[in-house]
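Box 3.1 A note on notation
Throughout this textbook, protein chains are presented in two layers. The first layer is the amino acid sequence; the second is a token string describing backbone geometry. Keep the layers aligned when reading.
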Amino acid sequence: MHTLTPKERLLAAAKKQQVDRPPCICPGGMMNMMFRDIMEQSNCLWPEAHVDPEKMAGLAFSLYEAGGFENYGVPFCMTVEAEAMGARVNMGDLLCEPHVVDSPLDSSARLDLLKPLNINSGRAKVVIDAIKILKAKNTDVPVIGNLAGPVSTAGMLVDMSVLLKEFRKKPLEAEKLMEYIVNNLIVFGRAQIEAGADAICISEPSGTGEILGPQRFRDYTVRYVNAVLDALDVSAKIVHICGSLNSVYKILPELHCDVFSFDSIVPISEIKAALPEKAIMGNISTHALGTMPPEKIKQLVRSCQQKGMDIIAPACGLPTTTPLTNIRAMVEAVRDVKTFAG
């Protein structure tokens, strides 16, 4: 089989087609791929790189050029959507990602206080412009756009503890909020695809089986993630769900994604059994990537490959203190061992 380009390899692996070896990627968004080594090496520093498209693209490009992941992925946090709709965000610093400091709603009933996400202003425009810059640099490298999941976005617009109560006690009002969020996520996702994104990753750190329980996981996470996915026309659709999945294994096949990404605590064998039709992605511990020696990282990668992982990736967002040597070790280990999936 001829050697595939990074883009060909990812798009084939996402559809469970035969590849020369698994891709090694990190999508971005909540699954942030950036760390201080690369920021300092490229002089594209946080927090400026969150608000400047040239620096955002420069950071993603620099990581790839330094022997990092086989994709570009922006942005480097999951607050863009909530901020665009009215949340107040602290932009963080060199070591700390942007985070919501003030939610605009005290109840999902106050939908009237939200603003529609505007793709022509603010950080939404920064992300779209960064994708255009990356697309123009190298079409062999896949560009991954990112969306915060509908439940996680809702949990930044309304306090999560209030939202969980309203899912239970005021479902009609909660559903109106979720529909509003979905419509705005679709607008942002389509704009990223139009700008050149080859894949879209939706991350749901709050919409998990652990937090919601099985019934509300189906009613809120699966329902609204699928509403976004179904409206996006893109070559690969990735969904990441955090935490333990024991309570929702039987529900996961209902997700309309090509690729399912999961946490390091989840056994690969259980996910493969639950999702035989989908490509699976993960689940290298980000704690290990941040703290362990390169040889240990290579062992973790080999173990993932032996267990049949279709796409090798970190299990979550990287700590900003992650050493570049460990990311290089991860990519090198994937390139060392030729395996065939499909």
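The CA atoms of residues 168 and 216 lie 9 Å apart. The two ends are 13 Å apart (CA to CA).
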